[in-house]
């Protein structure tokens, strides 16, 4: 026989309330109760042990198996639910980044500062005009306007040295000159007149003289120039005739 759903539920609740479930004991009790109930009704016991076992298992195990047992007991046993899936989160691998390498820029040594070129330039030379006469020539170049200029040529005393005067090439300005004997030397001075100026350019100053036959050594001769630029800066140059 087959128990009705209400009868099976009543039996299960009674057994569950009585004591802690025991699969074998509950199965025996359920089976005996079903037989006695059928006998009292005058019917042939036809309870299926498998069905009772399933019912007991449903009480003990709970879940979907109990619902299947109570619903029909004759249908195909459903597959047990799959075990819960545990998802393990894996932290992304941390890649260590190398610290940036600091580079030092190469230092460059500064070249020593070159002093500004003087706006005043000079040169000395000897122009021989014969066996007994010559001229010592001083060339002055200026890159700035000059408000004052004095050129001095000093000729060391040698046999029969005699001055023949001086001359200059200074266009556009007035220059005075004189020759004196100082400390055993002939000194030629050329001076820019007061109030005159010299514009940037090249100017020459000449000391003429005669000497004894056989030539003259000019290595002891010297010259110097002192000037003042338009902004009041003093300028000097000098040299020799070697």
UniProtKB/TrEMBL annotation:
Highest taxon above the source species: Bacteria
> Keyword Membrane on this protein?
yes
Determine if Transmembrane helix is one of this entry's keywords: yes
Ordered alphabetically, the record's keywords are: Membrane, Transmembrane, Transmembrane helix
What sections of the protein cross the membrane?
49-70
Provide the residue span(s) of the region labelled Disordered.
Answer: 74-128
Cite the record's Low complexity compositional bias ranges: 86-101
What name appears for this protein in its UniProt entry?
Answer: Uncharacterized protein
């Amino acid at each position: 026989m087959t128990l009705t759903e209400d009868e099976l539920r009543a039996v299960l609740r009674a057994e569950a309330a009585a004591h802690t479930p025991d699969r074998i004991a509950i199965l025996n009790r359920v089976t005996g109760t079903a037989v006695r109930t059928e006998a009292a009704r005058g019917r042939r016991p036809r309870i299926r042990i498998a069905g009772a076992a399933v019912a007991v298992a449903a009480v003990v195990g709970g879940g979907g198996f109990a619902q299947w047992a109570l619903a029909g007991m004759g249908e195909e046993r459903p597959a047990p639910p799959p075990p819960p899936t545990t998802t393990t989160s894996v932290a992304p691998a941390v890649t260590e980044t190398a610290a940036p390498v600091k580079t030092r820029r190469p230092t460059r040594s500064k070249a020593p500062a070159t002093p500004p070129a003087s706006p005043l330039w000079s040169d000395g030379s000897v122009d021989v005009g014969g066996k007994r006469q010559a001229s010592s020539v001083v060339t002055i170049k200026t890159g700035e306007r000059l408000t004052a200029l004095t050129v001095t040529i000093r000729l060391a005393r040698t046999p029969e040295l005699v001055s023949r005067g001086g001359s200059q090439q200074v266009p556009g300005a007035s220059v005075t000159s004189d020759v004196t004997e100082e400390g055993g030397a002939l000194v030629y001075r050329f001076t820019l007149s007061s109030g005159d100026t010299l514009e940037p350019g090249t100017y020459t100053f000449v000391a003429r003289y005669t000497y004894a036959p056989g030539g003259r050594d000019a290595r002891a001769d010297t010259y110097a120039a002192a000037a003042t630029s338009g902004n009041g800066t003093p300028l000097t140059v000098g040299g020799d005739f070697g």
